Amino acid sequence: MDDLNTRMDKAPRSDALVFFGASGDLAYKKIFPALLAMVRQDGFDLPIIGVSHSGWNDAQLVARARDSVAQDAKSQKKKVDEVAFRKLAKQLKYVNGDYNDPQTYVALKKALGTSKRPLHYLAIPPDFFGKVAKGLQAAGCTDNARVVVEKPFGRDLKSARELNRILHEVFPERAIFRIDHYLGKEPVQNLLYYRFANSFLEPVWNRNYIASVQITMAEDFGVEDRGSFYDGVGAIRDVIQNHLLQIVSFLAMDAPVGHDATSLRAEKLRLFRAMRPIDPKDVVRGQYAGYRSIKGVDKKSDVETFAALCLHIDTWRWSGVPFYIRAGKKLPVSATEVFVDMKTPPLAIFDEIEPPQSNYFRFRVSPEVVIAEGARVKIPGDAMTGEPVELIARHHQRPEKSPYERLLGDAIRGDGSLFSDDETVEAAWAVVDNALNHEAPVETYRPGTWGPKNAANVVDNEGWHDPVNETSAPD
Asked: What kind and span of H or E run contains 251?
């Protein structure tokens, strides 16, 4: 998979970008900085139309964009590229209106002018998807158009199917791009590349050599000012159903038969359909102490801020290999890491080698990018005794595209490689749907710990491999 942007069929490029939710938090934090980077690095020169119900004009939209990119530059200790921003400002237009008002879409149609292939980005809650799609259709804004929709794509399998039905009434499946910014991250893509660009991995990448796989997504911060949003979602819906199952797919899928998006999606879909639906009894849910005192959170909330579970994949390659997944807030570190535990040698030739043995692969996805292999080496001396060592490869830090910059660029080009199709989204929901119907209440855990005590019962044998803060070292 040398280039996920390579397509066997070249799709026509979109000729305008419309983003609904122009005054929202997502646009401020992610979209404006991504657009500036696209202008600066890729020569992005399409008309950009922001739509919201804030009563703004063009100048106020430009001012909002200016404040956004300034804050982003400040967080990176950089300066705003003023030349690139002036170009971006000239491309920005604003359409004010209520999403329920047909005149909003009439005004948008006028603002699009001669555009024939717009890309509509719905950076809005899913409840508005249907209304906006129908409004665009009625105003004649959907012919040869594409649409990008944000996660969460539904709250469960039933609602995901309904959202797909609504969108399919207006857009063909090939024109729908379901965005998960996690798939736009360079380290996540590197998992897929590492799998299929190195021949030494394939012979051992199966149930004959792998004992278990652990995936941990830890955050040392809490919900903070997102209480009202998070209390309607929880850890399983927020990151496990999408981000972490996508990581599982990159780790466990078979090689695609081609370089195009259809081939990649076909292998991912096959894998998702092989995942055994998660039994609620195999899930431990936790909630950090103090969560219920956050603004917007129900005082009796049973929403999980931590979840640990065991996933099984019923394929010839993975049968019998447990995939342990956990995600949580207010944990000791912020890190996302994959730990692939290899089986012990069939015979213990050297007596000191006893479980737990030290053969493993470790992939750190964030905040650093680390690929490590655990092995044993002999200690100098007469005795045949050894010690565990870790062989580490670190990426040199270099500028890279942000996830939104990459994914918006792909959608404009019509490249769906890093987006999910309708069947894959529904298959992923089918895996976790039962886990949402929990009977046991959440277990409270102290901030700064690794979740509730019962999370240890999810994992057999060695227990969880806790990520630690990496120290910088020479490559």
From this structure: helix 245-252
Classify 21 in phi/psi space as left (phi over 0), alpha (psi -120 to 50) or beta: left
59 Cβ contact list (under 8 Å, min separation 6): none
Distance, in Å, from the CA atom of 50 to the CA atom of 340, rounded to the nearest integer, reads 44
Residue ranges of domains in the chain: 16-150, 183-458
Q: What is the CATH number of domain 183-458?
A: 3.30.360.10
Q: Are 222 and 447 in contact (CB under 8 A)?
A: yes
What is the per-residue DSSP string for 13-67?
PPSEEEEE-TTSHHIIIIIHHHHHHHHHHH-----EEEEESS---HHHHHHHHHH
How far is Cα 31 from Cα 25, in angstroms, rounded to an integer? Answer: 9
pLDDT digits (tens, 9 = 90+) for 64-105: 999 999 999 998 889 999 999 999 999 999 999 999 999 999
Phi, psi (deg, nearest 5) at residue 378: -75, 140
Q: Are 210 and 324 in contact (CB under 8 A)?
A: no
- Say whether 76 sits in a helix, a strand or coil: coil
The pLDDT value given to residue 395 = 65
Report which of 243, 16, 46 is spatially closest to residue 136, judged by C-alpha positions. 16
β-sheet bridge partners, residue 389? 375
Q: What is the largest CA-CA distance in the chain?
A: 86
Interval 228-240: pLDDT, tens: 889 989 999 999 9
How far, in Å, are 367, 369, 474, 475 from residue 397 at the CA level? 12, 9, 12, 11
C-beta atoms surrounding 180 within 10 Å: 22
Six-digit token pair at 364?
A: 């750190």
- The chain-wide mean pLDDT, for the chain, equals 90
Q: Concatenated DSSP letters for 401-463? A: --HHHHHHHHHHHT--TTSB-HHHHHHHHHHHTGGGS--SPPEEE-TTSSS-GGGGGGS-TT-
Helix (H, G, I), strand (E, B) or coil at 131: helix
Least confident of 174-188, 280-294, 307-321: 174-188
Bridge-partner residues for 92, per DSSP? 48
Q: Does domain 16-150 have CATH number 3.30.360.10?
A: no
Residues annotated as catalytic (active site), given as ranges: 243
R_g (Cα) of the chain, nearest Å: 24
Mean pLDDT to the nearest integer, 295-299: 95
